[in-house]
């Protein structure tokens, strides 16, 4: 269980860094939402696979993978919202 939590914290850190770098380097500010959107799509796909595939432990593996991608979605989205609404208040 602690390994899973460490993996999830690593995913949070990774997607937060990717979102921050896209925010700093891109001129189009909507680009920073792309990692969160891709994680949402992949998480939904693996959640669908977990509900439909019932071969061995494939459904369990798909559910865990879905949880990892949805964690990336939440962390990317929260980072984007912080960069949009909280960070500009500190600049002024």
Q: Which structural class is indicated by helix and strand composition?
A: mainly alpha
Summarize the amount of helix as a percent range: over 70%
Span between N and C termini?
43 Å
What is the number of independent domains? 1
* Radius of gyration based on Cα positions: 15 Å
Strand content: under 5%
Based on Cα principal axes, name the global outline: elongated
Described by strand count, sense and barrel closure, the largest sheet is:
none
The secondary-structure element order is HHH
Number of helices: 3
Mean of all residue-level pLDDT scores: 92
Name the assembly state: single chain
- Outline the low-pLDDT stretches: none
Number of strands: 0
Overview features:
about 85% helix; mainly alpha; single chain; about 0% strand; elongated; about 90 residues
Explain this structure.
The N and C termini lie far apart (43 Å). This protein has one domain (2-91). The chain has helices spanning 2-25, 34-52, 58-91. The longest helix has 34 residues, at 58-91. The chain is 84% helix and 0% strand. It is mainly alpha-helical and 92 residues long. It has three helices and no strands.
């Amino acid at each position: 269980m602690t390994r899973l939590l460490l993996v999830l914290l690593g995913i949070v850190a990774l997607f937060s860094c990717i979102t921050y770098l896209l925010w700093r380097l891109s001129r189009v500010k909507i680009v920073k939402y792309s990692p969160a959107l891709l994680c949402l799509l992949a998480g939904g796909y693996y959640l669908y696979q977990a509900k439909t595939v019932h071969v061995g432990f494939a459904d369990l593996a798909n559910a865990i993978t879905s949880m990892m991608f949805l964690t990336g979605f939440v962390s990317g989205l929260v980072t984007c919202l912080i960069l949009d609404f909280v960070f500009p208040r500190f600049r002024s």
